[in-house]
Structure formats: structure tokens, C-alpha cells
Design goal:
Number of domains of chain B: 2
Shape of chain A: globular
CATH class of chain A: Mainly Alpha
Order of helices and strands of chain B: EHHEEHEHHHEHHHHH
Distance between the termini of chain A: 18 Å
Largest interface: A-B, 59 and 60 residues
Number of strands of chain A: 14
Largest sheet of chain B: 5 strands, parallel
Distance between the termini of chain B: 46 Å
Strand content of chain B: 5-15%
Number of helices of chain B: 11
Number of domains of chain A: 1
CATH architecture of the largest domain in chain B: 3-Layer(aba) Sandwich
CATH topology of the largest domain in chain B: Rossmann fold
Largest sheet of chain A: 4 strands, mixed
Oligomer: heterodimer
CATH architecture of chain A: Orthogonal Bundle
Structural class of chain B: alpha/beta
Strand order of the largest sheet of chain B: 2-1-3-4-5
Radius of gyration of chain A: 21 Å
Chain lengths: ~425, ~250
């Protein structure tokens, strides 16, 4: 084993936001293994206090550019629950549709642009333009389709406009629905090619079983709605999240850790895959099998493949949703439900691309926010990232310093962490070794 | 002609402006070919301190942000602000309305002394900004236009007329006639009236025009029996950062 090792990666690149990795080994003893987060705190809970009910979804969307649709809907669902608003079936289907494509956009960005360069021996997507032009072009086409879907339904690709409490300010036209269906169908050849490429990538061998938490639903592969499910054997209504999901302050840290049944848990594509495999489309299941992804999967690196499998499922399910909406007939009158303001509390839980996302609002009788609590997937994952790092470092300690640095960065990147999101309340966090 | 070296940086913000650069999709490869991106943490591992043009996203909201901004401004010959947080402060300024100390206490309780947070300000409160790419998020086409102008040494044209002009061109029904409030009368256009086109009132995410017709906004509010308080929430959503020389209504 290497006697001494001192690695500092600042900042970790190809993740959203600013995080640093520090590894310090002295006389074969790990002195420090840190994922430091110097990203600025944002104070969204304070920003929301006193705001009118129509504003939180627009404000909290700005927590994160990559998952603005997820924040928008966690927020809208919290407000609708507080007021008892019942959106139409058409609205719920359109919401599921836009939700799929933020996930496709985000998963594509991560798998092809942020993670793939590691496996293809490049520092970024830029050299891949020369060495692997096919991969880059497929990724750009997929992203373009997903962004266009979000734009058609939401009014723009980042920070959607039409998505409001009660429903939609504007719904797509019939022509746009058909256009979306054509766009979706045209992605299949690219997905087929992607599968062939991904099959050649070798994920590092590393297994550490942990608790996997995600939404779950009787019918759907849950993204927009459902109950909260743990692989440790419990299911709860999202409104009761505080009975299971805890936050604690860690020594030498201003950031909070989350824990549920044990010291840490994992959220995101791999948790959804492990908990809801049977709800995936047939094609998504076939692709998973081709990639060697089976339940239960305890290898965090396989999160990259789980994200790809979810892309296939989202395309399949979106075509189904469009058919269902068209069969019922688009109806402008069903775009908005009545909103009657009243005092109360509501919790909105959704699956952001990176995992479970919770907004919890309390309103006064004028419809102004009294109190807000937001729990973000990347925060939920921090404790698990550190425990993975603790377990993984001894396995690779005989490698060169450069190899160790890259391997640890790849492990962190596999989580697709979104640090801008997580620092709405977190500033610096240190691992206690 | 050698390719201009460009650094893309994020201060306090959501990363959405950098994402919109990655979202350029069919133009992204051309962009990579036309400029040499030497710093872009969100997408590229390699980074360098050798750049001519700095594109800066995000507000200054911590001492660390300020140190980074000062460092960048010493190197870059041209500074381009990208997005609302960087250009006008954006939603980050809502923290100022609540009070920085109070916000720290609400979110961090007895650990608030650990937190590096200062009053949020747009970057031009500290450094000279050469060009602004406006909006939350900015239009992709505008990002491309500004970069293209910089490459050929032309001054980018950013509209300085209100969003109402764009609504009229597009034939949109006025938001006030739909029973909604809207900041379009005094807000800077260039977005193609994106929000009113989606039947949602303008929230002035591109800031205000240099010479806003305050009387027109007042007349409009009077016509629809609204008071200034009725649109104050919309007014300060992106524009809560006070600036001494910035004209406001």
C-alpha cells in the first residue's frame, strides 16, 4: 500500500457547481478524505418567506438550471397540496411528459458529456469531437430533442414558463403533439447506436450495498408522483417524509447530512432502478440486460448505465402519454384548475434527475409563505458519497497518484452531483475520518 | 487569425446560463471551432488562466466570489456578463430584502458564523462590464450573437426598448387584457416576449430599459384599477438589488 498520498483536486470538474476533493494518507493511515463544498450558499428558504403563492415555483426553479422543471413541480405540488388544488388528468399527463424530458436532457448531459470522457480517456467532450464524433453528435441530437420537448410544453428549455399552480398557462397544439411524437420516434436509431458504444465501456468493479430511496407508484416508473420507498422495506406518503428522512449537523461542518434507516442512503437513477425495475418499459429492461445491469445493483458506477436505461424508458413512456392525451382530445378548458387560497401546509415530492426532491411550504390565509423547507437530492447523497469513498480508496490505493485521483473523481461524478442545488443551505462539509 | 481564448465562469447562481451554452447543440461544435475555451469547469477538466474574454455567470454573494471576480478581471481584456444574476443581481437579491444576517440565522441557526455570505450584488458593482447578455436564462441566439460580434470585433446590439414592442410585433394579446399583471411596459426586450407569448406576465428578468416610460406603466395600472403594490412582487423578483445609478420606476 502507498505510504503517503496527498491529492487535492480543486475544483472537481464536470459536475454541476463547485466541489473539491482532498485525500491525505500518512504512513498508510487515511488522515483526511474530504469532499469540500465551497459553493456559495443561496438562502432560498429565506427568499421564499413572505412571497405570494404564485411565485415560489418561479423562484425555486432558479435553484438549478439543470433540474429547473423538477424544482418547479416540487414547488407547485407543495402549493397545490396546501390549498387542495386538483389539476385535471390532462394536466397530470402533460406534467409527466415534460418531466420525462428534463430527465432525458439531464441524463444525456451526464452520461455523454460529463461521465463518458473518463471512459474514453479524454478530459472533456471537446477532444471527443475529434476522436469520437459519432458519440458527440448522438448526444447533441438527444439533448436537442429533450430540450425541444421541454420548450414546447414549458415555453422554454431552462426555467419553464407555462407550468403554474393549477395547470398550464398555455398547452401545446395538436400539431405540436404530433411533432413531439415524431421527434421521439426518431431517437431510437441513436439509442441503438449508443447501446453498442456503452457496452464497450467497462465500469469499475466496486460494490457497497446501501439503502436505496426513491418514489414508487403502482402504475408508473415514478418520476412526477408517488410514495417514498426504501429498499430497507418501508413505504410512506410523501407528506410524512419527516418521519423517516432526518437531517443532522456533522462535526466541523455547516452542512447537514441526511439519513433514514442507517448511516447513509443513495438517491437517483440507481435507486429508482433498484426500487422500480418492474415498471420500466420492455425495451428499457432489454437494454439494462444488455449492459449487465441487474437488480439489486450495488455498484455506484452503474448509475451511469441506469441513467441511460431511464432515457429509453422515458422515450417509450412519452410516446404512450402523447397517444393517450391525443385520444382523449386536447382541451383548453382543462388547462387550469380552480385555485382557492387557504392557510395550510403542503409537501411536494418528486424525482429530480439526481433523485428525491422535497419542497415543504406553510402558507398563511392570504396565500403568503410563512415557512419553507427544501431537501435536495445531492444533499441526501453526500453521506453516501463519503462512505463509498472510504470503501473504495483501500481497493485502489496501490495505483499511481494520477490513477487514484481519476478513480475518485469518477466515483463522485457517477453520482452526477448537483452542487448548486445542494448549497441552498450547505456551505462547507468535511468528512470525519 | 488565432482563435480568441475564452474562459467561462460561474459565481453564485444556478448554472443555467452555462447549461444554455451546452444547450447550443447544433451550434456547439461550430462554437468549439471558432473559439478556444480554456476554462469551463462545468464541462471541461483542463483549465488555464490564459484568456482574453471572460463570460461570467452569477452574482457576487460571498467574499470568495469577490476574490474570484477580481482575479478574473485582472486577466481578461473583455468581460461579458451573462444572465440576470450577473447583470442585475437576479433572484439572489431576494436574500438582501430578507436581510443577510437574518437569512444566515434562519438557515444556519447557531452555525451562522461559519457562513461566507455578503449582500448580493451584480458584478458591475465591482468591475467594469463590457457587454451584457441579458435574461434568466439568456436566449441561446443572443449568446451566439454576442460571441460572434466579439470574434469579428463588432459591438453587439442589445435592444433598449420595452417588451411591449415585441408583443405588438408578435400580435400577442396584452397580459392586462387577460387579467394578468406584466412588467413588459418598462422591461428590456430581446427575449422575443417569451413569457407573454406563453400567456404569462413579464417578470423583467432582463432588467429595465435605460429610459423607462414610468407614466405609461402608471397609466396602465390606473386603467386596470391596480396599485403599484400589485406588481411589486413581480418588480423585485429579479431586480431587488439596489444600484445608485440604475433607473427604476
Amino acid at each position: 500500500m502507498t505510504e503517503n498520498l496527498n491529492i487535492e483536486v480543486s475544483p472537481i470538474s464536470r459536475v454541476e457547481g463547485h466541489g473539491d476533493l482532498v485525500i491525505d494518507v500518512k504512513n498508510k493511515k487515511v488522515e483526511e478524505l474530504i469532499m469540500r463544498i465551497p459553493e456559495s450558499p443561496r438562502f432560498f428558504e429565506a427568499m421564499l418567506v413572505g412571497r405570494n403563492w404564485s411565485e415560489p415555483s418561479h423562484i425555486t426553479s432558479r435553484i438549478c438550471g439543470i433540474c429547473s422543471v423538477a424544482h418547479t413541480y416540487a414547488s407547485i405540488k407543495a402549493t397545490e397540496t396546501a390549498f387542495g388544488v386538483k389539476p385535471s388528468g390532462q394536466t397530470l399527463k402533460l406534467r409527466k411528459l415534460i418531466f420525462h424530458h428534463e430527465c432525458v436532457q439531464s441524463n444525456t448531459l451526464h452520461v455523454y458529456f460529463l461521465a463518458a470522457p473518463d471512459f474514453l480517456g479524454a478530459g472533456s467532450v471537446v477532444p471527443l469531437v475529434e476522436t469520437h464524433p459519432d458519440v458527440v453528435k448522438i448526444a447533441l441530437r438527444l439533448k436537442q430533442t429533450a430540450n425541444e420537448m421541454v420548450r414546447i410544453i414549458g415555453g422554454r428549455a431552462v426555467h419553464p414558463i407555462t407550468t403554474v399552480v393549477g395547470g398550464f398557462t398555455k398547452i401545446p397544439t395538436e400539431e405540436e403533439m404530433l411533432k413531439m411524437k415524431d421527434m421521439l420516434k426518431s431517437t431510437y436509431p441513436d439509442l441503438e447506436k449508443s447501446l453498442k458504444i456503452l457496452k464497450t465501456l467497462k465500469m469499475p468493479e466496486f460494490e457497497r450495498e446501501t439503502e436505496y430511496i426513491s418514489l414508487t407508484d403502482k402504475k408508473d416508473y415514478a418520476l412526477y408522483d408517488g410514495d417514498i420507498k426504501s429498499s430497507d422495506g418501508w413505504v410512506i406518503d410523501g407528506q410524512q417524509y419527516l418521519t423517516k428522512i432526518n437531517e443532522k449537523v456533522v462535526r466541523h461542518s455547516t452542512g447537514k447530512h441526511c439519513w433514514a434507516s442507517r448511516d447513509s442512503f443513495l438517491v437517483g437513477a440507481l435507486a429508482r432502478f433498484n426500487n422500480n425495475y418492474d415498471k420500466l418499459s420492455d425495451k428499457a429492461k432489454t437494454y439494462a440486460a444488455e449492459l449487465g445491469l441487474k437488480i439489486p445493483c450495488y455498484n455506484t458506477f452503474m448509475n451511469n448505465f441506469a441513467q441511460f436505461v431511464e432515457i429509453i424508458h422515458s422515450i417509450d413512456d412519452s410516446i404512450k402519454l402523447i397517444d393517450e392525451i391525443m385520444e382523449a382530445g386536447l382541451d383548453e378548458d382543462k388547462a387550469m384548475a380552480d385555485v382557492n387560497i387557504k392557510a395550510g401546509r403542503g409537501v411536494g415530492v418528486v424525482e429530480a434527475p439526481r433523485g428525491l426532491l422535497i419542497h415543504d411550504y406553510t402558507y398563511n390565509n392570504e396565500g403568503n409563505v410563512l415557512k419553507a423547507n427544501l431537501i435536495i437530492p445531492t444533499n441526501m447523497n453526500y453521506a453516501n458519497i463519503e462512505m463509498d469513498m472510504d470503501a473504495y480508496l483501500p481497493l485502489i490505493i496501490d495505483k499511481s497518484e494520477d490513477e487514484i485521483r481519476l478513480a475518485m473523481e469518477m466515483l463522485i461524478r457517477a453520482y452526477d452531483p448537483c452542487i448548486s442545488c445542494s448549497t441552498h443551505f450547505l456551505n462547507v462539509k468535511l468528512v470525519n475520518k | 487569425m488565432s482563435k480568441p481564448k475564452v474562459g467561462i465562469f460561474g459565481l453564485t447562481g444556478c448554472g443555467g446560463c452555462q447549461l444554455e451554452i451546452l444547450n447550443l447543440e447544433d451550434q456547439l461544435l461550430d462554437l468549439f471551432a471558432a473559439i478556444d475555451i480554456v476554462h469551463f469547469t462545468e464541462a471541461i477538466t483542463e483549465h488555464s488562466d490564459n484568456y482574453d474574454i471572460a463570460l461570467i455567470e452569477g452574482s457576487v454573494a460571498t467574499k470568495h466570489d469577490l476574490e474570484r471576480l477580481e482575479h478574473i478581471s485582472k486577466i481578461a481584456k473583455v468581460i461579458v456578463s451573462i444572465g440576470a444574476c450577473s447583470g442585475i443581481g437576479g433572484v439572489n437579491c431576494l436574500k438582501n430584502l430578507y436581510g443577510v444576517e437574518k437569512a444566515k440565522e434562519l438557515v444556519y441557526g447557531d452555525k451562522k458564523e461559519w457562513i461566507d455570505a455578503i449582500e448580493t450584488k451584480p458584478i458591475d458593482e465591482y468591475v467594469k462590464v463590457d457587454y451584457y447578455i441579458r435574461g434568466c436564462p439568456p436566449n441561446r441566439s443572443e449568446i451566439v450573437d454576442v460571441i460572434r460580434s466579439l470574434i469579428v470585433g463588432k459591438i453587439p446590439e442589445i435592444p433598449n426598448y420595452p417588451v411591449c414592442v415585441e408583443c405588438k410585433r408578435l400580435g400577442n394579446t396584452c397580459m392586462y387584457d387577460l387579467g394578468k399583471t406584466c412588467m413588459g411596459v418598462v422591461s428590456r426586450a430581446g427575449c422575443g416576449a417569451r413569457c407573454p407569448s406563453a400567456k404569462s406576465g413579464c417578470e423583467a428578468c432582463r432588467g429595465f430599459i435605460d429610459d423607462p416610460n414610468v407614466n405609461a406603466q402608471k397609466d396602465l395600472l390606473a386603467k386596470y384599477n391596480l396599485k403599484i403594490e400589485d406588481i411589486m412582487g413581480m418588480f423585485n423578483l429579479y431586480n431587488a438589488c439596489k444600484k445608485t445609478d440604475r433607473k427604476t420606476i
